[in-house]
Design a protein that fits this description.
The chain has 201 residues and is an alpha+beta fold. Helix content is 53%, strand content 17%. A hairpin with a 5-residue loop joins strand 1 and strand 2.
């Protein structure tokens, strides 16, 4: 059965609905594009901001940079040969002037554990000063401290409390420490080892 022809009013209504549908479709597409463009802009600006921060704001001030560049070869070499420093910025090796140009280099306290004959743990605290013949020898001791401490700690751990008893034990300890120090700083040599403190507990 044929449909009756539409009146002019009905055609207008249908056209209006079609137009409204088309307009609705057009409105959705730009909304999606705006959201995508907004997310892209946030990503680009965030990345650019991070890059700017790391490139420009994370650099040392110009004065520090110039000072570091101006440090000549002599100063750089001097710092490279500097004695290691403790936690508070104090040198690990304290050097004092003695008579006849002799220098006394006091090493940091060493604490190590030993094994007693009955199996109980025993602790040894040792404070040693080295007698250096000249400034050149004294200057070698500070940079060599990690090796010195390693060698001396290994030696002290092998001792037993009875090895350190009496003057013979102390003499033997001095002799062994002197030999190991001279091995580390060879060809330079220290004259003597002075035991300032030795505590076994």
């Amino acid at each position: 059965m044929a449909k009756p022809p539409k009146s002019a009013d009905e055609e207008d209504v249908d056209l209006g609905g079609a137009e409204a549908g088309e307009e609705g479709g057009k409105k959705k597409l730009p909304l999606r594009l705006i959201i995508i463009a907004g997310v892209a802009a946030v990503v680009v600006l965030g990345g650019g901001g991070a890059a700017a921060f790391f490139l420009f704001f994370n650099q040392p001030p110009a004065a520090e940079k110039d000072g570091a560049e101006k440090k000549g070869g002599a100063e750089a070499k001097k710092e490279a040969g500097k004695a290691p420093e403790g936690e508070e910025g104090e040198p690990l090796v304290v050097v004092t002037q003695g008579p006849d140009g002799v220098l006394f280099c006091t090493l940091p306290n060493m604490v190590t554990n030993m094994q007693a004959s009955d199996g109980r743990p025993v602790y040894l605290k040792l404070k040693v000063t080295l007698e250096a013949p000249d400034q050149e020898t004294a200057d070698l001791i500070g940079p060599a401290m990690p090796r010195l401490q390693d060698m001396l700690q290994a030696f002290l751990r092998e001792l037993r409390p009875e090895d350190l008893q009496g003057s013979q034990g102390t003499f033997q300890l001095r002799t062994e420490v002197l030999r190991r120090v001279n091995l580390v700083i060879a060809p330079a040599r220290v004259n003597a080892v002075l035991i300032e403190e030795m505590l076994i507990s």
